[in-house]
Amino acid sequence: MLLSLEDDTGAGQEPMRTGLAVAGAALVELALLGRIAVVGKDIVVRDAAPVGEPAVDPVLAALAGREKPRKARDWVELLQKDAVNAARGRLLERGLVREERKRVWGIFPTRRYPEADGSVERELRDTLEAVVHGGAEPDERTVALLGLLHGAGLQELAFPEAEKKALDRRLTELAQGQWSVPLVRDAVRAVQAATTATIAAVTAVTLT
Asked: What percent of the chain has pLDDT above 70?
């Protein structure tokens, strides 16, 4: 979410793709914490106990509240609006962005989120740069984030000046590397497939 917001204006970039990626990130976070797993194509809850994170616990509750498991694509589509609002809320709580409310043409209300504290984003970008272009050894969460960005077609938010083909090759290489926790790998791949399918479907409808 932080990578998608323009620092000065607070305008969101690629809102549809970002929404899908943020919803997918909540699922991957739950996989990292051992709360969910991917069985076949379905997301299955392994442990419904709250994790204490306001941006993630509502997602876990929604998953656990279903009698029958659903596919990653269903959850990514269903959860994206709430996941984006929760992520923005957490950025505000941490003082990383501030909220500006305005009206377009004096009628339509809009909200933007300019940067208030750039330290976390700078640290994040430095970490991603070190892994992708510096050859640093990534941890599981960093590889998962890169996989989410790549799957949603948002890698240019993190690497705006990178050569596209070389960047794609490097991100693919990282995604195919050794994962210490297979269920996290499975969750990332399921979310990548879900995001790609949803974007393709929306694009096809838009073009017809």
From this structure: 99
